[in-house]
Amino acid sequence: MIVIAGALGAVLHLLAGTTAPESILVAGVALAGLSLYHMVTTRLRDRFEVGGQIADLSRGTHDLARQVAELGRRVVALEGQGDVAGERARAATEPLAAEIGELGTLVKQLADSVAVHDTRITAALNRPAPSVAEAAGAVDLAPVIVRDSEDAAIVPDASRTAAAILSAVEDDRIDLYLQPIVTLPQRKVRYYEAVTRLRTEDGQTLLPEDFLGPAEAAGLVPRIDNVLLFRSVQVVRRLLMKNRDIGLFCNIAPPTLHDPKLFPQIAEFMAANRALGPSLVLEFRQETWRAMGPLEIEGLAALRELGFRFCMDQVTDLRLEPRDLGERGIRFVKVPASLLLGGGAQHSDIHPSDLSDLLGRYGISLIADHIESEAQVVDLLDHELRFGQGFLFSPPRPVRAEALQGDDTMSAQTGARAAAAPFSSSAAAAAIL
Questions:
Q1: What phi and psi values does residue 36 have, to the nearest 5 degrees?
Q2: Do residues 287 and 102 touch, judged by C-beta distance below 8 A?
Q3: Is the pLDDT of residue 155 over 70?
Q4: pLDDT value of residue 361
Q5: Cα–Cα distance, 315 to 286 (Å, whole number)
Q6: Is 246 within 8 Å of 192 (Cβ atoms)?
């Protein structure tokens, strides 16, 4: 550019006859113009090159995004296949696990029955033989004895126990007891569990383990549950007048759930008292939940829609499906403290210390029951439990008579009619209100 500008100035000076200063000025102007042109063209070339690099980078980014999206779709497809395989495996193993659990329960019951009979046989064989006069005078009071060919097996007359239970039901000698369920570690009463006791004519108290077997054999359990649920509603109403945060657990036995006439009437009665749904929890055994058929599941679904919650009680193994429990309306699971602290890991795919957190993800609270020592409480606190129940906190205590009088207008005859007949929702609701 300098050469061109100098040549232009020399040509003007020599050929055109311009003076030297004018030629130098023209050469300087030409040099400045050439420099400006060179700078502009250089910047345009650099900008074009940068634009090309940006376009290449954009195309590379687009290809990378497309590959990432394809990889995401493949991952989702693989996860879906894994979920389907897991559901199939769970569906195939759940019935087998349920059958194994039921078989274990039956074996345990058989062992208990054999042990009871062995004890009775031993006691009878060791009893001194009565005299002829004593035998003649006691013939009407002796139990029925059945003897085999060689060994003598003594079978008590269960009809007398059934008659005593029937008499207690007919005469309204069914007492309601409450055992508190407390928060841990504060030990503040949050719920109560309602249990029944029967009184014989001579004033003796029969515990559930004493009368449930004969009562179930005699078909009296639905009538006992009838009274239990009827009075539980009364107690809940009385509790809510003092504390809106207190709730009540009411245990329903399998014969009541399977009764085709009584259970629909119970559902009707509960519908008339749906306002108590948040405070009244219906409790069923683990084996009862596993043995439910379509009709029972549909009936409980109707109660769940009314706002009532359920609890799984008497858990014998920890092979639980929290998602399934939550979908069926179960909001509480009661597990014996010995199972959580002892051999629970042998009956579950999850460690007992993680069970509370797992159930909590599906809105289910874990309750440790049968707590009998402070040492158990200390160990259970490591399991992050919220509730506990047991004789350590309080044994079941009887409900005062005035708490079962509704609005102080219910008579003893009303309770007797409730014990002798199935639920009549309109009559029961009128008696309570």
A1: -65, -40
A2: yes
A3: no
A4: 92
A5: 5
A6: yes
* Max Cα-Cα span within the chain: 172
Q: What pairs with residue 284 in β-bridges?
A: 312
162-166: Cβ within 8 A, 24+ apart: 162/214, 162/215, 162/217, 162/218, 162/220, 164/198, 164/200, 164/201, 164/206, 165/198, 165/206, 165/211, 165/214, 165/215, 165/218, 165/220, 166/218, 166/220
Tracing tokens 């609701």 back to the chain, one arrives at 429
Would you place residue 172 in the very low, low, confident or very high pLDDT band (cuts 50, 70, 90)? confident
Residues 208 and 197: their CA atoms lie apart, in Å, by: 7
Q: Identify whether the C-beta of residue 248 lies closer than 8 Å to the C-beta of residue 236.
A: yes
* Spatial separation of the C-alpha atoms in residues 194 and 231, rounded to whole Å: 9
- For position 114, what pLDDT does the model report? 58
Q: Where are the beta strands (DSSP E) in 184-260?
A: 189-199, 205-206, 247-251
What backbone phi and psi angles, to 5 degrees, belong to 333? -135, 120
The structural domains of the chain, ordered by start, are: 157-432 (3.20.20.450)
225, burial (CB in 10 Å: exposed 0-12, middle 13-18, buried 19+):
buried
Question: Is 315 in contact with 286 (CB distance < 8 Å)?
Answer: yes
Q: What is d(CA 213, CA 220) in angstroms, rounded to the nearest whole number?
A: 10
Q: What confidence tens digit (pLDDT) does each residue in 23-63 have?
A: 888 888 988 888 888 888 888 888 888 888 888 888 888 88
Cα 410 from Cα 431, distance rounded (Å): 6
The β-bridge partners of 332 are 311, 365
| Pairwise CA distance, residues 284 & 93, whole Å | 23
Q: CB neighbours (10 Å) of residue 240?
A: 18
DSSP 185: T
Q: Is the pLDDT of residue 330 over 90?
A: yes
Share the mean pLDDT of the chain. 77
User: Half-sphere exposure (CA, 13 Å, Cβ side) for 336?
Assistant: 12
What distances in angstroms separate CA 35 from CA 25, 30, 42, one per listed residue?
A: 15, 9, 11
